[in-house]
Amino acid sequence: MSRLDEFSIVEYLAMLQLYATANNNLEEARRLYSQSEHLNALRLRGIESPQIPFTPTILAATQRLLDYGQFRAPTHAQGQGRLNYYSPEFEDVLEYCQRDPRRSTRMAAREFDVSQTFVWKILHTQGLNPYHFRKAHVINNTDAPTGIALHTLDARVTVYSSGTIQCAK
Question: Where does the source fall among the domains of life (predicted)?
Fold first, then answer.
């Protein structure tokens, strides 16, 4: 989809004129805009390679003109947009919360000087939740057996000092 910044004021004005000519029909306005006579007229007005806008672009330009009296939104109405997932804090916050899932989002926000909402969004985009953790033991051969070894017909079960259980055939 085209972005509003990709068009000049002359192109926005042409979109609006054709939208009004087409009785507020977006598809018809786009069809009129794409006609070779109209594109040649834009070239004569100084637009070297005019792009044909998508219908949401025409609608957005019209709505911004109605809302703000200009084709581009003023800076106070632009907002911050999407969360910047490539910020330096992104990986740090993830690592911090994965190291100890019992830490709260408030603690992570204070640690990295970001908002608590930012921490929540990072965790939720990764499918994580604070306070939800699973304990899992990795069997280390360095663990010393506690002396409990059970032999069955099919397997040998050994319990290590860390509480890990190993079954061997």
Answer: Eukaryota
pTM of the entire structure? 0.44
Confirm whether 159 is domain-assigned. Answer: yes
22 located within any domain: yes
Q: Does residue 10 share a domain with residue 67?
A: yes
Q: What is the pLDDT of residues 109-128, one digit of tens each?
A: 888 888 888 888 888 777 77
CB 164 within 8 A of CB 143: yes
Could you list the residue range(s) of the whole structural domain that residue 15 is in?
A: 4-77
